[in-house]
Structure formats: C-alpha cells, structure tokens
C-alpha cells in the first residue's frame, strides 16, 4: 500500500518486504549491504528504471496517449 511496488521490482532493483515487518526488512537490508555485487547490480537497475520513468518521459507518454 505504499506505492513502492511501482518502483521496486523484487529481486531486480530491490527487495520487497511486508509492510511493518522489521525482521524481513532487516534481512533484506543485510542481504543487500553484505553483497557488493548484488548492491551494485540493483543500484544500476534502479538508475535505469528511474531514467525510463522520469517525469519528462511520463509526460511525453501522456501527451502521446492524449494525441491519439
């Protein structure tokens, strides 16, 4: 219910955990922080997602839909 699911794709650019589950959150943080390769991979994939979903790109998509 936080909207994180729109930006975070579990295992691709982050790890989704149940809301308010402190233990699962700590496990996910430990996993990412203890694995440099995983952290770098998820960071890079997050950057790609952010660029693809920037406000400019989203506005262009909406204008294109509106013009059709």
Brief summary of the model shown:
The chain is mostly helical and 68 residues long.
Description:
The protein is mainly alpha-helical. It is built from 4 helices and no strands. It has helices at 4-7, 22-34, 36-52, 55-67. The mean pLDDT is 93.
Silhouette = elongated
Number of alpha- plus pi-helical segments: 4
Q: How many strands, which pairing sense, and closed or not: the largest β-sheet?
A: none
Average residue-wise pLDDT: 93
What is the CA-based Rg, rounded? 15 Å
Report the helical percentage. 55-70%
Structural class: mainly alpha
The overall strand count is: 0
SSE topology:
Elements: H1 4-7, H2 22-34, H3 36-52, H4 55-67
Considering the chains and any ligands shown, give keywords for the structure.
68 residues; mainly alpha; 69% helix
